[in-house]
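input
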Amino acid sequence: MTSWVVCDGSCTSPVVAVVNDREMPFLVDVCVVFFARQGLPSPVRAAAEQQRLVPGERVEVVLRAGVGFDDGDLTERGWFFDTDAFSARLAVWAELLANGPWTEQFAFRPTFELVARHVYGELAPEVPGLAFVELEDRTYGSRTRYAPVPWSVS
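output
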């Protein structure tokens, strides 16, 4: 089994979701950290004579997803959804994404953009209020967020 941890507190997002012209004042992020092997070379890094990525090289990745909801969505318990259950769903995805090179797991070219969109598409029918899915490459310092709803900076 792949080891993963709940994100260390750097999971906050300075954005507000707007769905059907209605601001969602709550945006709860949940994330897991794992190591992945994308499997794609980087011609851009090679051309710039930067450190090259070796196909299949392990990189530290954060899989982060957010759920947006309104005050009216809160239950009498004072919450909208179970973050532990959501973390468990993300952990399943983290294990899948950590299980070998992405080039061997997906029929499409597994860029961070396309994988984020794919994971969003798989989670959206199961997770009410899913606002985004993000993949952060901590090794090379990039974040890719798929958020099909309009966003505004808060």
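quick obs: The two ends are 39 Å apart (CA to CA).
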